Amino acid sequence: MNKNMSYMDSVHRCGRIWNLSMTVVLLLFPLAVGLIFGAAPDWHGFWMGVIATAPMYWAVAVVETFTFIPMLGAGGSYLSFVTGNISNLKLPVAINALEQAEVKASSEEGEIVSTIAIAVSSIVTTVIIIIGVILIRPLTPLLNAPVLEPAFSQILPALFGALGVVFISKNWKISIAPVLLMLVLFIFVPALNAGTVGIMVPVGVLFTLAVSRIMYKKGML
Amino acid sequence: MDFNINSPILFLLVGVIVAAVLGQSVFFLVKAWKRGREIGMPKEKLKKIASTAAVFTIAPAVAIVISVITLSKDLGLPLPWLRLSVVGSLSYETIAASNAEGAMGLVFGQVSNLTASQYITVAGVMTVSIMLGIWLVPVVCKRLLGGMISMEGRDKKWGEIFTNAMFIGMISAFLGYVFCDFLGVFSGDLRGLIPVLVMFVSAIIMVLCGLVKKRLGWRWIADYALPISLILGMASAIPITAMLS
Predict the structure, then answer these.
(1) Rounded distance between C-alpha atoms, residue B15 and residue A209, angstroms
(2) Tens digits of residue pLDDT in A107-164
(3) Residue B114 has pLDDT above 90, yes or no
(4) Cα separation, A195 vs A200, whole angstroms
(5) Whose CA is closest to A146, among B245, B20, B167?
(6) Which of A4, A100, B95, B100 could form a Cys-Cys staple with B125, CB 3.0–4.6 A?
(7) What percentage of chain A carries pLDDT values higher than 90?
Protein backbone atom coordinates (compact mmCIF):
# COMPACT_ATOMS: atom_id res chain seq x y z
CA MET A 1 0.00 0.00 0.00
CA ASN A 2 2.81 2.38 0.97
CA LYS A 3 4.64 1.46 -2.20
CA ASN A 4 1.45 2.06 -4.16
CA MET A 5 0.97 5.47 -2.52
CA SER A 6 4.57 6.42 -3.12
CA TYR A 7 4.27 5.57 -6.85
CA MET A 8 1.17 7.76 -7.17
CA ASP A 9 2.80 10.52 -5.15
CA SER A 10 5.83 10.43 -7.42
CA VAL A 11 3.59 10.55 -10.53
CA HIS A 12 1.93 13.68 -9.15
CA ARG A 13 5.26 15.25 -8.17
CA CYS A 14 6.87 14.56 -11.57
CA GLY A 15 3.68 15.55 -13.41
CA ARG A 16 3.60 18.92 -11.65
CA ILE A 17 7.26 19.58 -12.46
CA TRP A 18 6.83 18.54 -16.11
CA ASN A 19 3.63 20.50 -16.72
CA LEU A 20 4.78 23.69 -15.05
CA SER A 21 8.11 23.44 -16.91
CA MET A 22 6.29 22.90 -20.20
CA THR A 23 4.15 25.99 -19.49
CA VAL A 24 7.33 28.06 -19.19
CA VAL A 25 8.95 26.43 -22.25
CA LEU A 26 5.87 27.10 -24.40
CA LEU A 27 5.70 30.74 -23.29
CA LEU A 28 9.41 31.10 -24.09
CA PHE A 29 8.83 30.38 -27.79
CA PRO A 30 7.31 33.77 -28.77
CA LEU A 31 9.73 35.46 -26.37
CA ALA A 32 12.76 33.78 -27.98
CA VAL A 33 11.54 34.62 -31.50
CA GLY A 34 11.11 38.26 -30.43
CA LEU A 35 14.62 38.40 -28.96
CA ILE A 36 16.28 36.69 -31.95
CA PHE A 37 14.60 38.89 -34.55
CA GLY A 38 14.57 42.04 -32.40
CA ALA A 39 10.79 42.42 -32.56
CA ALA A 40 8.10 43.21 -29.99
CA PRO A 41 4.56 41.91 -30.17
CA ASP A 42 1.73 44.12 -31.36
CA TRP A 43 0.31 44.49 -27.83
CA HIS A 44 -3.04 45.82 -29.01
CA GLY A 45 -3.40 42.85 -31.38
CA PHE A 46 -2.21 40.47 -28.66
CA TRP A 47 -4.73 41.59 -26.03
CA MET A 48 -7.59 41.83 -28.53
CA GLY A 49 -6.72 38.34 -29.79
CA VAL A 50 -6.55 36.92 -26.25
CA ILE A 51 -9.82 38.60 -25.23
CA ALA A 52 -11.53 37.18 -28.33
CA THR A 53 -10.10 33.67 -27.87
CA ALA A 54 -9.22 32.89 -24.27
CA PRO A 55 -12.51 33.23 -22.30
CA MET A 56 -14.25 30.41 -24.17
CA TYR A 57 -11.21 28.12 -24.21
CA TRP A 58 -10.39 28.81 -20.55
CA ALA A 59 -13.97 27.97 -19.58
CA VAL A 60 -13.78 24.77 -21.67
CA ALA A 61 -10.38 23.96 -20.10
CA VAL A 62 -11.83 24.20 -16.56
CA VAL A 63 -14.73 21.89 -17.40
CA GLU A 64 -12.52 19.50 -19.40
CA THR A 65 -9.98 19.28 -16.57
CA PHE A 66 -12.61 18.13 -14.09
CA THR A 67 -14.29 15.83 -16.65
CA PHE A 68 -11.25 14.16 -18.20
CA ILE A 69 -8.93 13.63 -15.21
CA PRO A 70 -11.04 10.83 -13.64
CA MET A 71 -11.08 9.03 -17.01
CA LEU A 72 -7.41 9.58 -17.93
CA GLY A 73 -5.80 8.83 -14.55
CA ALA A 74 -2.87 10.79 -13.09
CA GLY A 75 0.00 10.06 -15.52
CA GLY A 76 -2.39 10.14 -18.48
CA SER A 77 -3.76 13.55 -17.42
CA TYR A 78 -0.37 15.21 -16.98
CA LEU A 79 0.64 13.96 -20.43
CA SER A 80 -2.65 14.52 -22.26
CA PHE A 81 -3.08 18.13 -21.19
CA VAL A 82 0.37 18.90 -22.66
CA THR A 83 0.11 16.86 -25.85
CA GLY A 84 -3.56 17.67 -26.60
CA ASN A 85 -6.07 15.87 -28.85
CA ILE A 86 -7.70 14.43 -25.72
CA SER A 87 -11.25 13.55 -26.70
CA ASN A 88 -10.43 12.47 -30.27
CA LEU A 89 -7.28 10.46 -29.49
CA LYS A 90 -5.87 10.16 -25.95
CA LEU A 91 -9.13 9.29 -24.19
CA PRO A 92 -10.23 6.66 -26.78
CA VAL A 93 -6.72 5.15 -26.62
CA ALA A 94 -6.92 4.97 -22.81
CA ILE A 95 -10.47 3.59 -22.79
CA ASN A 96 -9.57 0.92 -25.35
CA ALA A 97 -6.44 -0.08 -23.41
CA LEU A 98 -8.40 -0.40 -20.16
CA GLU A 99 -10.99 -2.51 -21.95
CA GLN A 100 -8.32 -4.65 -23.60
CA ALA A 101 -6.46 -5.20 -20.30
CA GLU A 102 -9.75 -5.78 -18.41
CA VAL A 103 -8.77 -3.47 -15.56
CA LYS A 104 -10.62 -0.67 -13.79
CA ALA A 105 -9.60 2.93 -14.52
CA SER A 106 -9.28 3.75 -10.81
CA SER A 107 -7.02 0.77 -9.93
CA GLU A 108 -3.22 1.01 -9.95
CA GLU A 109 -3.13 -1.39 -12.93
CA GLY A 110 -5.61 0.91 -14.68
CA GLU A 111 -3.37 3.91 -13.95
CA ILE A 112 -0.38 2.07 -15.47
CA VAL A 113 -2.32 0.83 -18.50
CA SER A 114 -3.78 4.24 -19.37
CA THR A 115 -0.41 5.99 -18.85
CA ILE A 116 1.39 3.53 -21.15
CA ALA A 117 -1.30 3.81 -23.83
CA ILE A 118 -1.36 7.62 -23.72
CA ALA A 119 2.46 7.91 -23.62
CA VAL A 120 2.86 5.59 -26.63
CA SER A 121 0.10 7.46 -28.48
CA SER A 122 1.81 10.80 -27.74
CA ILE A 123 5.20 9.50 -28.93
CA VAL A 124 3.73 8.03 -32.15
CA THR A 125 1.81 11.25 -32.85
CA THR A 126 4.88 13.42 -32.29
CA VAL A 127 7.07 11.18 -34.46
CA ILE A 128 4.49 11.06 -37.29
CA ILE A 129 4.21 14.87 -37.22
CA ILE A 130 8.04 15.11 -37.39
CA ILE A 131 8.05 12.74 -40.39
CA GLY A 132 5.24 14.81 -41.93
CA VAL A 133 7.24 18.03 -41.46
CA ILE A 134 10.40 16.49 -42.96
CA LEU A 135 8.53 14.98 -45.92
CA ILE A 136 6.03 17.81 -46.37
CA ARG A 137 6.79 18.36 -50.06
CA PRO A 138 6.17 14.79 -51.30
CA LEU A 139 3.38 14.21 -48.74
CA THR A 140 1.27 17.33 -49.39
CA PRO A 141 -0.22 16.24 -52.75
CA LEU A 142 -0.80 12.73 -51.40
CA LEU A 143 -2.48 13.75 -48.13
CA ASN A 144 -4.46 16.51 -49.83
CA ALA A 145 -5.65 14.14 -52.58
CA PRO A 146 -9.41 14.64 -53.06
CA VAL A 147 -10.00 10.86 -52.99
CA LEU A 148 -8.68 10.61 -49.40
CA GLU A 149 -10.42 13.72 -48.07
CA PRO A 150 -13.70 11.93 -47.10
CA ALA A 151 -11.77 9.32 -45.10
CA PHE A 152 -9.92 11.88 -42.97
CA SER A 153 -13.04 13.98 -42.43
CA GLN A 154 -14.89 10.96 -40.99
CA ILE A 155 -12.41 9.94 -38.27
CA LEU A 156 -14.75 10.77 -35.36
CA PRO A 157 -17.79 8.79 -36.65
CA ALA A 158 -15.51 5.81 -37.41
CA LEU A 159 -13.88 6.03 -33.98
CA PHE A 160 -16.99 6.50 -31.87
CA GLY A 161 -19.03 3.96 -33.83
CA ALA A 162 -16.55 1.28 -32.78
CA LEU A 163 -16.08 2.53 -29.21
CA GLY A 164 -19.81 3.17 -28.81
CA VAL A 165 -20.91 -0.34 -29.71
CA VAL A 166 -18.59 -1.84 -27.09
CA PHE A 167 -19.46 0.49 -24.23
CA ILE A 168 -23.16 0.88 -24.93
CA SER A 169 -23.68 -2.89 -25.18
CA LYS A 170 -21.98 -3.31 -21.79
CA ASN A 171 -23.75 -0.38 -20.11
CA TRP A 172 -26.99 -0.19 -22.08
CA LYS A 173 -29.18 0.75 -19.11
CA ILE A 174 -27.30 3.97 -18.38
CA SER A 175 -26.73 4.70 -22.10
CA ILE A 176 -30.32 5.09 -23.30
CA ALA A 177 -31.08 8.51 -21.77
CA PRO A 178 -27.81 10.32 -22.66
CA VAL A 179 -27.71 8.90 -26.22
CA LEU A 180 -31.34 9.98 -26.81
CA LEU A 181 -30.68 13.43 -25.31
CA MET A 182 -27.59 13.99 -27.45
CA LEU A 183 -29.34 12.76 -30.62
CA VAL A 184 -32.23 15.18 -30.07
CA LEU A 185 -29.92 18.08 -29.24
CA PHE A 186 -27.53 17.55 -32.15
CA ILE A 187 -30.31 16.91 -34.69
CA PHE A 188 -32.54 19.83 -33.71
CA VAL A 189 -30.13 22.52 -32.41
CA PRO A 190 -28.30 23.97 -35.45
CA ALA A 191 -25.57 25.54 -33.28
CA LEU A 192 -24.37 22.07 -32.25
CA ASN A 193 -21.80 20.77 -34.75
CA ALA A 194 -18.15 19.70 -35.05
CA GLY A 195 -17.00 22.95 -33.47
CA THR A 196 -19.17 22.62 -30.38
CA VAL A 197 -19.01 18.88 -29.69
CA GLY A 198 -16.18 19.45 -27.18
CA ILE A 199 -18.47 21.65 -25.10
CA MET A 200 -21.18 18.97 -25.14
CA VAL A 201 -18.87 16.29 -23.69
CA PRO A 202 -19.08 17.66 -20.12
CA VAL A 203 -22.84 18.12 -20.59
CA GLY A 204 -23.15 14.46 -21.63
CA VAL A 205 -20.97 13.33 -18.72
CA LEU A 206 -22.89 15.32 -16.08
CA PHE A 207 -26.26 14.21 -17.47
CA THR A 208 -25.19 10.53 -17.54
CA LEU A 209 -23.87 10.77 -13.97
CA ALA A 210 -27.16 12.31 -12.79
CA VAL A 211 -29.30 9.67 -14.57
CA SER A 212 -27.05 6.86 -13.33
CA ARG A 213 -27.24 8.14 -9.75
CA ILE A 214 -31.04 8.25 -9.86
CA MET A 215 -31.21 4.73 -11.37
CA TYR A 216 -28.71 3.45 -8.80
CA LYS A 217 -30.65 4.96 -5.89
CA LYS A 218 -33.88 3.39 -7.23
CA GLY A 219 -32.16 -0.03 -7.44
CA MET A 220 -32.34 -0.17 -11.24
CA LEU A 221 -28.62 -0.89 -11.71
CA MET B 1 18.52 38.79 -38.89
CA ASP B 2 15.77 38.93 -41.54
CA PHE B 3 12.54 37.30 -40.46
CA ASN B 4 10.89 34.54 -42.42
CA ILE B 5 8.00 32.31 -41.24
CA ASN B 6 10.06 29.29 -42.33
CA SER B 7 13.40 30.50 -40.96
CA PRO B 8 15.76 27.63 -39.95
CA ILE B 9 16.11 29.13 -36.45
CA LEU B 10 12.34 28.71 -35.95
CA PHE B 11 12.66 25.02 -36.89
CA LEU B 12 15.47 24.71 -34.36
CA LEU B 13 13.46 26.36 -31.54
CA VAL B 14 10.40 24.22 -32.26
CA GLY B 15 12.56 21.10 -32.53
CA VAL B 16 13.90 21.71 -29.01
CA ILE B 17 10.39 22.16 -27.57
CA VAL B 18 9.04 19.10 -29.40
CA ALA B 19 12.01 17.12 -28.03
CA ALA B 20 10.96 18.20 -24.52
CA VAL B 21 7.37 17.03 -25.20
CA LEU B 22 8.77 13.72 -26.45
CA GLY B 23 10.93 13.54 -23.33
CA GLN B 24 7.88 13.89 -21.07
CA SER B 25 6.08 11.07 -22.90
CA VAL B 26 9.12 8.77 -22.71
CA PHE B 27 9.57 9.63 -19.01
CA PHE B 28 6.00 8.64 -18.10
CA LEU B 29 6.13 5.57 -20.34
CA VAL B 30 9.28 4.26 -18.63
CA LYS B 31 7.94 5.10 -15.16
CA ALA B 32 4.60 3.32 -15.73
CA TRP B 33 6.28 0.36 -17.43
CA LYS B 34 8.70 -0.14 -14.51
CA ARG B 35 5.88 0.10 -11.97
CA GLY B 36 3.78 -2.33 -13.98
CA ARG B 37 6.60 -4.90 -13.93
CA GLU B 38 7.12 -4.27 -10.18
CA ILE B 39 3.51 -5.12 -9.34
CA GLY B 40 3.68 -8.24 -11.50
CA MET B 41 2.02 -7.18 -14.75
CA PRO B 42 3.29 -9.51 -17.52
CA LYS B 43 5.65 -7.97 -20.06
CA GLU B 44 3.53 -9.39 -22.90
CA LYS B 45 0.43 -7.60 -21.61
CA LEU B 46 2.27 -4.27 -21.44
CA LYS B 47 3.73 -4.78 -24.92
CA LYS B 48 0.27 -5.53 -26.31
CA ILE B 49 -1.17 -2.35 -24.76
CA ALA B 50 1.68 -0.32 -26.25
CA SER B 51 1.45 -1.86 -29.73
CA THR B 52 -2.36 -1.47 -29.91
CA ALA B 53 -2.07 2.19 -28.85
CA ALA B 54 0.64 2.76 -31.49
CA VAL B 55 -1.36 1.16 -34.33
CA PHE B 56 -4.55 2.96 -33.29
CA THR B 57 -2.78 6.35 -33.26
CA ILE B 58 -1.48 6.24 -36.85
CA ALA B 59 -4.64 7.37 -38.71
CA PRO B 60 -5.56 10.25 -36.33
CA ALA B 61 -1.89 11.35 -36.34
CA VAL B 62 -1.87 11.50 -40.15
CA ALA B 63 -4.98 13.70 -39.89
CA ILE B 64 -2.97 16.00 -37.59
CA VAL B 65 -0.22 16.20 -40.27
CA ILE B 66 -2.92 17.35 -42.72
CA SER B 67 -3.85 20.07 -40.21
CA VAL B 68 -0.18 21.14 -40.06
CA ILE B 69 -0.14 21.41 -43.86
CA THR B 70 -3.40 23.43 -43.81
CA LEU B 71 -2.12 25.93 -41.24
CA SER B 72 1.35 26.17 -42.81
CA LYS B 73 -0.05 28.13 -45.76
CA ASP B 74 -0.57 31.14 -43.47
CA LEU B 75 1.83 30.58 -40.60
CA GLY B 76 4.78 28.73 -42.15
CA LEU B 77 5.72 25.23 -41.05
CA PRO B 78 7.40 25.63 -37.61
CA LEU B 79 4.50 27.28 -35.72
CA PRO B 80 1.78 24.76 -36.77
CA TRP B 81 4.28 21.95 -36.09
CA LEU B 82 4.71 23.28 -32.55
CA ARG B 83 1.06 24.06 -31.90
CA LEU B 84 -0.23 20.69 -33.12
CA SER B 85 2.49 18.77 -31.25
CA VAL B 86 1.26 20.31 -27.99
CA VAL B 87 -2.22 21.24 -26.75
CA GLY B 88 -3.60 22.51 -30.03
CA SER B 89 -6.10 21.33 -32.60
CA LEU B 90 -6.89 22.57 -36.11
CA SER B 91 -10.13 24.27 -35.04
CA TYR B 92 -8.58 25.99 -32.00
CA GLU B 93 -5.45 27.16 -33.82
CA THR B 94 -7.50 28.48 -36.73
CA ILE B 95 -9.76 30.46 -34.38
CA ALA B 96 -6.84 31.79 -32.31
CA ALA B 97 -4.80 32.75 -35.41
CA SER B 98 -7.86 34.35 -37.09
CA ASN B 99 -8.63 36.39 -33.95
CA ALA B 100 -5.00 37.52 -33.56
CA GLU B 101 -4.59 38.37 -37.24
CA GLY B 102 -8.03 40.04 -37.31
CA ALA B 103 -7.03 42.25 -34.35
CA MET B 104 -4.02 43.41 -36.39
CA GLY B 105 -6.15 44.16 -39.46
CA LEU B 106 -5.17 40.99 -41.34
CA VAL B 107 -7.41 38.31 -42.81
CA PHE B 108 -6.61 34.69 -41.94
CA GLY B 109 -6.05 32.64 -45.08
CA GLN B 110 -4.97 35.67 -47.10
CA VAL B 111 -1.67 36.47 -45.39
CA SER B 112 1.46 35.69 -47.37
CA ASN B 113 4.23 37.25 -45.28
CA LEU B 114 3.85 37.91 -41.56
CA THR B 115 6.35 40.29 -39.99
CA ALA B 116 8.28 39.15 -36.89
CA SER B 117 6.04 41.34 -34.71
CA GLN B 118 2.84 39.90 -36.21
CA TYR B 119 4.26 36.38 -35.94
CA ILE B 120 5.03 36.59 -32.22
CA THR B 121 1.66 38.22 -31.60
CA VAL B 122 -0.12 35.29 -33.28
CA ALA B 123 2.11 32.75 -31.49
CA GLY B 124 1.49 34.52 -28.16
CA VAL B 125 -2.31 34.48 -28.58
CA MET B 126 -2.26 30.79 -29.62
CA THR B 127 -0.12 29.89 -26.60
CA VAL B 128 -1.76 31.95 -23.85
CA SER B 129 -5.37 31.23 -24.83
CA ILE B 130 -5.04 27.44 -24.40
CA MET B 131 -2.59 27.40 -21.48
CA LEU B 132 -5.04 26.96 -18.63
CA GLY B 133 -5.44 23.18 -18.82
CA ILE B 134 -1.68 22.53 -18.60
CA TRP B 135 -1.29 24.27 -15.27
CA LEU B 136 -4.75 23.51 -13.88
CA VAL B 137 -4.02 19.76 -13.97
CA PRO B 138 -1.10 20.04 -11.48
CA VAL B 139 -3.37 22.07 -9.20
CA VAL B 140 -6.41 19.77 -9.10
CA CYS B 141 -5.33 16.31 -10.33
CA LYS B 142 -4.21 14.80 -7.01
CA ARG B 143 -7.20 16.10 -5.07
CA LEU B 144 -9.69 15.03 -7.75
CA LEU B 145 -8.34 11.48 -8.06
CA GLY B 146 -8.10 11.27 -4.25
CA GLY B 147 -11.81 12.13 -4.10
CA MET B 148 -12.57 9.37 -6.65
CA ILE B 149 -10.66 6.80 -4.58
CA SER B 150 -12.41 7.78 -1.34
CA MET B 151 -15.80 7.66 -3.11
CA GLU B 152 -15.01 4.12 -4.29
CA GLY B 153 -13.95 3.24 -0.77
CA ARG B 154 -17.35 4.31 0.54
CA ASP B 155 -19.42 2.61 -2.19
CA LYS B 156 -17.55 0.29 -4.56
CA LYS B 157 -20.51 -0.42 -6.85
CA TRP B 158 -21.33 3.27 -7.32
CA GLY B 159 -17.63 3.95 -7.97
CA GLU B 160 -17.70 1.52 -10.91
CA ILE B 161 -20.97 2.94 -12.25
CA PHE B 162 -19.52 6.46 -11.90
CA THR B 163 -16.52 5.65 -14.13
CA ASN B 164 -18.66 3.88 -16.74
CA ALA B 165 -21.17 6.78 -16.70
CA MET B 166 -18.35 9.23 -17.48
CA PHE B 167 -17.22 7.14 -20.47
CA ILE B 168 -20.81 6.78 -21.71
CA GLY B 169 -21.42 10.53 -21.29
CA MET B 170 -18.44 11.33 -23.50
CA ILE B 171 -19.32 8.69 -26.12
CA SER B 172 -22.97 9.85 -26.23
CA ALA B 173 -21.87 13.43 -27.05
CA PHE B 174 -19.84 12.19 -30.02
CA LEU B 175 -22.65 9.87 -31.17
CA GLY B 176 -24.96 12.90 -31.11
CA TYR B 177 -22.41 14.85 -33.16
CA VAL B 178 -22.51 12.14 -35.84
CA PHE B 179 -26.18 13.09 -36.44
CA CYS B 180 -25.66 16.90 -36.48
CA ASP B 181 -26.44 17.23 -40.22
CA PHE B 182 -29.11 14.53 -40.23
CA LEU B 183 -32.07 16.94 -40.50
CA GLY B 184 -30.97 17.88 -44.03
CA VAL B 185 -31.78 14.32 -45.18
CA PHE B 186 -35.51 15.14 -44.96
CA SER B 187 -35.05 18.01 -47.41
CA GLY B 188 -33.14 15.83 -49.88
CA ASP B 189 -29.54 16.60 -48.82
CA LEU B 190 -28.19 13.10 -48.21
CA ARG B 191 -24.74 14.25 -47.07
CA GLY B 192 -25.96 14.20 -43.47
CA LEU B 193 -26.16 10.41 -43.77
CA ILE B 194 -22.43 10.02 -44.50
CA PRO B 195 -21.15 10.16 -40.89
CA VAL B 196 -24.11 8.06 -39.73
CA LEU B 197 -23.35 5.28 -42.22
CA VAL B 198 -19.60 5.44 -41.47
CA MET B 199 -20.41 5.08 -37.78
CA PHE B 200 -22.56 2.01 -38.48
CA VAL B 201 -19.89 0.42 -40.70
CA SER B 202 -17.31 0.89 -37.97
CA ALA B 203 -19.67 -0.47 -35.29
CA ILE B 204 -20.51 -3.54 -37.42
CA ILE B 205 -16.80 -4.26 -38.01
CA MET B 206 -16.19 -4.01 -34.25
CA VAL B 207 -19.00 -6.52 -33.64
CA LEU B 208 -17.61 -8.84 -36.36
CA CYS B 209 -14.15 -8.71 -34.72
CA GLY B 210 -15.78 -9.77 -31.44
CA LEU B 211 -17.60 -12.64 -33.17
CA VAL B 212 -14.43 -13.82 -34.94
CA LYS B 213 -12.59 -13.84 -31.63
CA LYS B 214 -15.38 -15.84 -29.98
CA ARG B 215 -15.89 -18.35 -32.80
CA LEU B 216 -12.31 -18.82 -34.00
CA GLY B 217 -10.44 -17.93 -30.82
CA TRP B 218 -8.31 -15.28 -32.59
CA ARG B 219 -7.30 -13.22 -29.58
CA TRP B 220 -5.16 -10.85 -31.69
CA ILE B 221 -8.17 -9.61 -33.63
CA ALA B 222 -9.78 -8.43 -30.39
CA ASP B 223 -6.58 -6.58 -29.47
CA TYR B 224 -6.57 -4.70 -32.77
CA ALA B 225 -10.36 -4.47 -33.20
CA LEU B 226 -10.49 -0.71 -32.59
CA PRO B 227 -7.76 0.30 -35.08
CA ILE B 228 -9.18 -2.18 -37.64
CA SER B 229 -12.70 -0.71 -37.23
CA LEU B 230 -11.34 2.84 -37.36
CA ILE B 231 -9.37 2.30 -40.59
CA LEU B 232 -12.12 0.32 -42.36
CA GLY B 233 -14.75 2.82 -41.17
CA MET B 234 -12.66 5.68 -42.58
CA ALA B 235 -12.10 3.74 -45.83
CA SER B 236 -15.86 3.17 -46.15
CA ALA B 237 -16.33 6.96 -46.11
CA ILE B 238 -14.77 7.15 -49.60
CA PRO B 239 -17.47 5.14 -51.50
CA ILE B 240 -20.25 6.34 -49.15
CA THR B 241 -19.34 9.99 -49.83
CA ALA B 242 -19.13 9.30 -53.58
CA MET B 243 -22.64 7.80 -53.50
CA LEU B 244 -24.34 10.44 -51.36
CA SER B 245 -22.64 13.70 -52.40
Answers:
(1) 42
(2) 899 999 999 999 999 999 999 999 999 998 888 888 888 888 899 889 889 999 999 9
(3) no
(4) 10
(5) B245
(6) B100
(7) 59
- Judging contacts by C-beta atoms under 8 Å, the chain A residues touching residue B179 are 183, 186-187
Tell me how far the alpha carbon of residue B34 is from its chain's centroid.
Answer: 26
B123 interaction partners in chain A (CB closer than 8 Å): 29-30, 33
Long-range contacts of B203-210 (CB under 8 A, 24+ apart): B203/A161, B203/A162, B203/A164, B203/A165, B203/B229, B205/A162, B205/B229, B205/B232, B205/B233, B206/A161, B206/A162, B206/A165, B206/A166, B207/A165
Choice between B5 and B70, residue whose per-residue pLDDT is larger = B5
CA torsion sign, A113 to A22 to B59 to A127? negative
| Cβ separation A151–B235 shorter than 8 A | yes
Question: Sign of the CA dihedral B214, B216, B220, B222?
Answer: negative
Q: Is the pLDDT of residue A1 over 60?
A: no
Nearest to B164 by CA among A216, A180, A77: A216
Pick the residue of B174, B194, B207 with the most A CBs within 10 A to test the interface with A by mutation: B174
